[in-house]
Amino acid sequence: MGLFSKLVVASLPVIPKSIVRLVAQRYIAGPSLSDAVATTQALMKLGASSTIDVLGEFVTERRRAADETVMSMSVASAIHDHKLDAYLSIKLTSLGLDLDRDFAFENVTKIVTHAQQLGVFVRMDMENTPYTDVTLDFYRKLRANGFTNVGVVLQAYLRRTEADVRSLLEYQPSVRLCKGIYVESETVAYKDADEIRNSYKKSLRLLVDGGANVRIATHDEQLIVDAESLIRQQSLDPSRYQFQMLLGVREDRRNTLIAAGHPMCIYVPFGDDWYGYSTRRLKENPQIAGYVARAVLTGKS
Questions:
Q1: 49-103 pLDDT per residue, tens
Q2: 252 touches 12 (CB < 8 A)
Q3: pTM
Q4: How many Cα atoms within 13 Å fall on the side-chain side of residue 277?
């Protein structure tokens, strides 16, 4: 990250939310479920599927967690009713995990049960490390309860990820593999870019060799090229893998992967709780610094 980009990232806490919102518009479908449906339909015309996410996390009120549960079920219904090439992503902390673990699991089970009845897949997003074990425990418990329409996310920058991959292979799981974005201690996470890339490559190979269904979620060109090479070497069937990208990020590269015949899925977030998600995206992508600067100076994204 260059000096200018670092300065923009450091100044994010004092940049008005109205400016952040201007820049964030390209990365969020909009405030409503209908916005997410329309965005997903547009992506389908481009040859991409979607995973739809209701923005929100770290909920501290039971009523709010119950509302988030209902909204996630509404997303599953919309996917079914509109015949969308999409699935549902959920965050456990938005469903009450910080309030009561059993309460959160009940909410997740409601969502997964409703989705299963509609033929819709659900993926539990991975949040920061206080929630890694419980997320994987929820996955194992759901699988033990007979649910097959559920998947997880693993983060390559965590030192534990290789062991987590190996522990999940017995389920032939659907795993979204990403680099990871939360700020973590060096005791639990790699900090060097090459170490993170090496962990990603190793984890990807373990998943492929272990028969998992892999979602290659990265915008890192080195990792994309490496994955393309692995897919060719293994003659990997398109039913076994998928590239995944965020809405509004590296759209040209997205299009070249689609044109090459690779399955592509775009992460489509929507909702009013946009600020935390947006600032993490801005910190993750130094190219966005120019957008922020232009928005500050001109009031336009």
A1: 999 999 988 899 999 999 999 999 999 999 999 999 999 999 999 999 999 999 9
A2: no
A3: 0.88
A4: 24
User: Which residue of the set 123, 164, 176, 250 is catalytic?
Assistant: 176
Between CA 21 and CA 24 the distance in angstroms is: 5
Q: What angle do CA 237, 39, 258 make, to 5 degrees?
A: 30
Determine the Cα–Cα distance for residues 146 and 59; give it in Å rounded to an integer: 28
CA quadruple 23, 27, 29, 31: dihedral sign: negative
Please give the Cα distance from 264 to 245 (Å, whole number): 8
46 against 288, higher pLDDT: 46
Active site residue 98: no
The domain ranges of the chain are 1-28+283-301, 30-273
Name which residue leads in pLDDT, 16 or 226: 226
Identify the active-site residue in 53, 123, 125, 215. Answer: 125
First-to-final CA distance of the chain: 21
Say how far apart CA 243 and CA 225 lie, in whole Å: 11
Q: Which CATH architecture has domain 30-273?
A: Alpha-Beta Barrel (3.20)
Q: What are phi and psi of 194, to 5 degrees?
A: -70, -35
Closest to 200 (Cα-Cα) out of 174, 230, 171 = 230
Tokens read off for 2: 């260059």
125 is known as an active-site residue: yes
